[in-house]
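Entries read sequence, tokenised fold; example below:

***
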Amino acid sequence: MTPTDPLVLRRDDDAVARLTLNAPASRNSLSLAMLDALKAELAALAAEPKVRAVILDGEGPAFCAGHDLKEIQAHRNDPDRGRAFYEALLDRCAQVMLAINALPQPVIAVVEGIATAAGCQLVAACDLAVAGEAARFCTPGVNLGLFCSTPGVALARNLSPKPAMEMLLLGEMVDAPTALRFGLINRIAPPGQALETAQALAAQLAGRSAYSLSLGKRTYYAQAGLPLADAYREAGKAMADNMLAADAAEGIDAFLSKRPAVWDNP
């Protein structure tokens, strides 16, 4: 990578967009510049209905090693001891995680190597995750006297409480089979084949109704934080809207007629 190379690479394959964190020398750390670049790419994708699935991976041997600790340390000599920078950094990071959540398209993380601290948070923020057999995950902040509180937000929404607290309290590396058991990832691929596995999943998603996937993703996250009765009301309204959509009429008719559906995708 040269200083002029983009921090996030984008490559499209038909209806699937692939975003690659492109700072291998820093293990694709989430510096402020990296977060800004990723946020800009996500904003662009949100406005492109022709893209129906997104893959997120990292260049080099690591997916993402979390925040740039050198950048963090460099601001300790600021007049406010770095508080303004740290708050801006964490706010920007939260904006990126929320942008993934709000993106109309499903996002698949691809992990070969390590995903640690905010990098592990990034995996948890994605809708799906595929890891190579050698992938490892960790929220090691506690080992540095810096508890991974913001990664804990994403972990708490992916893992049950005991595995989430185990990762956060112990700060130990978790291998791919354990991450699968904990609920952090969906699939384990043979070494070097995580991207290929994710591309196959993305192709499946791209063949679905874009409207129903977008509505379904939005509804899933909206109802997940609601009390049970409110969740059913939210989901019921969304499903009624979905039933009235052209794609639902087409899909049901295609099923009853035993023919392939033709979605009204852009």
Q: What stands out?
A: The domain at 8-206 is CATH 3.90.226.10 (2-enoyl-CoA Hydratase; Chain A, domain 1).
